[in-house]
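SIS domain-containing protein
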Amino acid sequence: MNSDAPLHERVAALVVSLTPGEAVVAEFMAANPALVAVSSTAELGSLTSTSDATVVRTTKKLGYPSFRELRRSALAISGRHRDPSKVLDDQLEQISGSDFGAKKVLLDTALLLRQFEADLDTDSWTRAINAMTSAARVITYGIGPSGCPADYLSICLHRAGKPSTSIKATGFSLADSLLDMNESDVLVVFATLRQFREIDVVLEYAAKVGATTILVSETLGEALRERVDVVLATPPTTTGTSDGVVMGMIVARALNLSVSAERQTDAVRSYERLNALRADIVGGKLDAEG
């Protein structure tokens, strides 16, 4: 193993040679470099339900002479991955070094999907679906690119007859969007990487009015776990050529279908009404009707 190889590459190369406990630690560290950079071996042992001894063994098997060196590596990774220009630079290097850029993106995305499937917390997923199904309304929130999966989920739920609205506002206008949130709502927040001030405000207000909160994120799960009802963690994307929004869209798609399946008859009837309205708008049968 190259002594300069970053943490996530070491984990990918060596995880098959680790014990189950060590693999849990290694994969957690690869997914949470910012947290590793500020944690002790005992704290990581607690976070992974293993032990500080397991963390130390994993550190050595990954080729680090000490845990301090591993933390230094994790700090460098987390700092670089918070800088969009550096992330893009790394991704473009990977594309230019591949035979076919599209294939590289597809392969990286496929790897992420397999990791997502393997790491999916089914208990958290079930709690999210139950909360959304029973809610009077589902509110989605996302800033910038994270607004794409938020919008998509809200549109799909609305079409399937589930009351839903999407919020993308920032600054003062956010206050108007939050004003009617109440305890019968479920709030789904898409926050891929960064904890903007608006995210804090949205979660604080949701807690104040008693709304149920679901967080979809690849980096903020541990930091915000005590402030939300459900965390749906997605795998880290800044080390490859895929993107966090892709994972967010996958989550949005799966949430919509899972919630709609719980109320299948109503969902199908809603889509029938939607199709009829579309036919009225175009003044005749739609192409899909033959």
